[in-house]
Specification:
- The protein is mainly alpha-helical.
- 50% of the residues lie in helices and 4% in strands.
- 23% of the residues are buried.
């Protein structure tokens, strides 16, 4: 009379048995080095906001006022200099955003979530620095004092003004989009060994050759 062998149920799938980098690998994706790199990018890009302020104060077209001794008026009511000031800030922010993204990518080609977050936050802070510092570097906001200093019927420059505050988002949006594009196109990719992770994912009983029958038990 034959002895029936007890069938051992298949062991549950263990994700830790997968090789590193294989599908289903639950290893930590963010390392302390990634967080450090993200913080470094945020700080470096934020400091670059000083460059935006200098360029904006230098290149933005000027709106001019004139005083009649009693009140201050626009010298040219049809001037488009106010729109030009916003356009200059927009264009500079887009160029600096693309430049900061390219610099970040060249420094760390592997990308990563902390790097993108650091780039986005640093870019937003840089835009705020460029805006507020640019206003301070531009002509005085005290129109009465500026009119008195210039004299009656003598044109003088109006202070810088950013009417479209949405332009503050141009730098971070351009930086993140360009960086993601560069990462998708040229970031290094690891070679995955073909078949290794698939074999490791199978339960132990599945590795037996089904074509070879087991010898009968007596």
């Amino acid at each position: 009379m034959g002895v029936t062998e007890a069938v051992t149920p298949p062991s549950p799938f263990d994700p830790s048995s997968l090789p590193p980098g294989s599908p289903g690998d639950t290893g930590a994706a963010v390392t302390p080095e990634d967080v450090r790199d993200g913080a470094a990018v945020a700080l470096a890009v934020a400091v670059a906001g000083v460059l935006l302020a200098l360029l904006w104060a230098w290149l933005a077209p000027r709106v001019q006022y004139v005083s009649n001794g009693e009140a201050v008026f626009l010298r040219d009511s049809e001037s488009e200099a106010r729109i030009g000031s916003d356009g200059t800030f927009f264009a500079l922010s887009a160029v600096l955003g693309a430049a900061s993204a390219a610099g970040t990518f060249l420094w760390r080609r592997r990308g990563g979530v902390p790097l993108v977050i650091g780039l986005g936050l640093g870019s937003l802070f840089a835009a705020l620095v460029g805006w507020r510092l640019g206003l301070w570097l531009g002509p005085s906001s005290d129109l009465a004092a500026a009119a008195l200093k210039a004299g009656k019927k003598v044109p003088f420059d109006a202070p810088l003004e950013l009417m479209a505050h949405g332009a503050l988002l141009v730098w971070p949006m351009a930086a993140v989009l360009v960086h993601l594009g560069l990462t998708a196109l040229w970031s290094p990719r690891e070679q995955e060994p073909a078949g290794e992770w698939a074999a490791a994912a199978l339960p132990p009983h599945a590795h037996a050759d089904p074509a070879v029958p087991e010898p009968p038990q007596t």
